[in-house]
Recover the amino acids of this structure.
């Protein structure tokens, strides 16, 4: 008596244990003086369930390609532990920006997000998900070389022209960059944002960005319009028996008169306002109701020296003038 496959010769009666890995038909063959006998028994092997896994591309952002790996489980499988492992021959997964490329799914957790550093070389992603009593889930995906785009985006100034003492807003939005800076005077910044600048003179601001794909440089010029200068004059007017006379004038536009711009003047002799008299004092104001002219007198006799004039107004550059005066005598 013999049994095949895998058992061989046996006694005329007995039993044995078999563990086929797939459905198998066993044949018993017996022979004796009276003839032969053939009997068959089929042992059906039910295959284990296969892990219902998945692996898909998710998105690309901030220098990483993102992939989803996980298990679709039935309610009865919630208590099971599934172990996963993902490898890539052309690069590495970054656990700081995604989940670990190897781990387990337990309880309600059935998904992991993996971050593949970009750029990377061409290679094959291999996925393995296992669970005791289940056939493994395996998957392969070929990934080509990546071409990382250079930094790009926008850099603007608003307004591009300001009056002295005013401000402009610099705004930017840069992609594919790991570092961004603006000079002069701003420094390192986020990849998008805005800041206010108040240059005292016309300034060109340069944004510099760099990333894995290259670099970017962009300029914005903020023009500073200088304040207007007081349109004044200071002249020697003549001499009387009592004084040397000087005339102070402001030549105003009709707009300055209608807006009642107030101009303040001051006349000094050798740094002092003493020694003056006549129609107007050595200091005063011109507004919309005045003529814009004043005559001041330096009393005779006087020593030699320098007579100085300044005329100012808010938002204007001050008018200044000096005149050397020789010693003056009373007639």
């Amino acid at each position: 008596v013999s049994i095949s496959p895998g058992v061989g010769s046996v006694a005329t009666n007995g039993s044995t244990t078999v563990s086929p890995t797939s459905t198998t038909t066993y044949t018993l063959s017996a022979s004796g003086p009276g003839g032969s006998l053939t009997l068959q028994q089929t042992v059906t092997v039910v295959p284990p369930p296969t892990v219902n896994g998945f692996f898909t591309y998710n998105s690309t952002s901030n220098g990483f390609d993102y992939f989803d790996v996980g298990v679709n489980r039935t309610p009865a499988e919630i208590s099971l532990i599934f172990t996963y492992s993902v490898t890539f021959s052309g690069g590495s997964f970054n656990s700081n920006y995604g989940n670990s490329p190897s781990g387990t799914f337990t309880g309600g957790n059935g998904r992991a997000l993996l971050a593949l550093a970009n750029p990377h070389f061409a290679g094959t992603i291999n996925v393995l998900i296992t669970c005791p009593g289940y056939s493994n889930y395996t998957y392969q995906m070929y990934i080509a070389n990546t071409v990382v785009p250079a930094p790009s985006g926008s850099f603007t100034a608003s307004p591009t022209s300001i009056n002295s003492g005013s401000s402009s807003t610099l705004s930017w939005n840069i992609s594919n960059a790991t570092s961004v800076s603006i000079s002069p005077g701003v420094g390192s910044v986020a990849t998008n944002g805005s800041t206010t600048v108040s240059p005292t003179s016309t300034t060109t601001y340069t944004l510099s960005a760099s990333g894995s794909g290259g670099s970017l440089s962009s300029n914005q010029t903020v023009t500073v319009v200088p304040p207007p200068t007081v349109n004044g004059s200071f002249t020697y007017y003549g001499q009387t028996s009592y004084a040397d006379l000087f005339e102070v004038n402001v030549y105003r536009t009709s707009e300055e008169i209608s807006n009642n711009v107030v101009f303040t003047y001051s006349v000094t002799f050798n740094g002092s306002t003493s020694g003056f008299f006549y129609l107007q004092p050595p200091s005063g104001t011109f507004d919309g109701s005045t003529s814009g002219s004043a005559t001041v007198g330096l009393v005779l006799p006087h020593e030699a020296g320098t007579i100085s004039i300044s005329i100012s107004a808010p938002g204007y550059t001050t008018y200044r003038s000096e005149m050397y005066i020789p010693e003056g005598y009373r007639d």
User: Anything to note?
Assistant: The first strand starts at residue 2 and ends at 4. The chain has four domains: 2-43, 53-143, 152-225, 232-325.
